[in-house]
Amino acid sequence: MYTHFKEINELISRSEKIILTTHVVPDGDAIGSVMAFAGYLKQKGKNPVIINHSETPDNLKFLDKKNIIRVFSKDRLKNEKLISEAEVIFLLDTNEYSRTKSMEEFLINSPAQKVCIDHHMGLKPRQFNFVITNTVYPATCQILYEFIKDDDEKYFTKEVASALYTGIMTDTGSFRHPRTSSDVFMVCAELINDGADPVKLYDEIFANVTKENLKLTARFLDGLQFHSDNKIVTGTVTKEDFRSTGLDIDHVEGFTSLIMNIKGIKIGIILVELKDNIKISFRSKGNIPVNKLAAEFNGGGHKNAAGANIKGYSVKELRKLILEKSEKYLEN
Hints:
The protein contains 13 helices and 13 strands. 41% of the residues lie in helices and 17% in strands.
């Protein structure tokens, strides 16, 4: 673990133009990270700007009540200028510039100091000026909790605590994924004491299913295919599925949990057909390293949860190729 807490706080103290960003199609840990860190920085007299490639998913917009998160493609010239003039850029919940999509070139070329705070594998420290990372932790928000606590617990306002709790809850799959340790529960207990409401936060994120969501889920479940003596399951979401329901990739969140809850499943694979590529989500149980499987498709992630993006294949062709490569991981 890299813990450059002191150096980064010194960098913050002497900087005014601070940018925060996270990965494409942000989840609870991504939005929780940028919102919690922004809240912390504001209390220190800073005025950070959050710029993301993607829109904030509907079920996470409650964390950004003042609508401060900027979307890069909206007012692109202004956002390019903000990045080019930044003194410090924080990349949160990802360690790859490529996962910021349209922002990648501008982030890399900015003369700003680059700081990565993340919990994923595959970090290349030389790409950043400072790094805080811990791949044992289930969420970047747990790392940020330690960073803020190391400074002063007074910064845990209700808003900051709620954002951090959201990130930890969602990235642990509501506290049921691997790496949900006793430390995780102790951190969350502290965040609840600081104002995070676990019942309200769960309802905000998960108790908002619409008829369209149900229709998309039904189409997805109806198309599941089982392989290798029912130990591998593959699911697809096509452009037609999105068109017919009026939804988008934000509404696929939770599908991996559905397939990994099926009895006997060891590897779960979801292919989501987008406009110009196919997004693949890999999940596994036990000692099966799907991050290595994802790496065969230029992807990466955690041992039991990884992903990749591929161009140039149809869904049918890509599923066949993935299944061929999956067998060896199942056998081992």
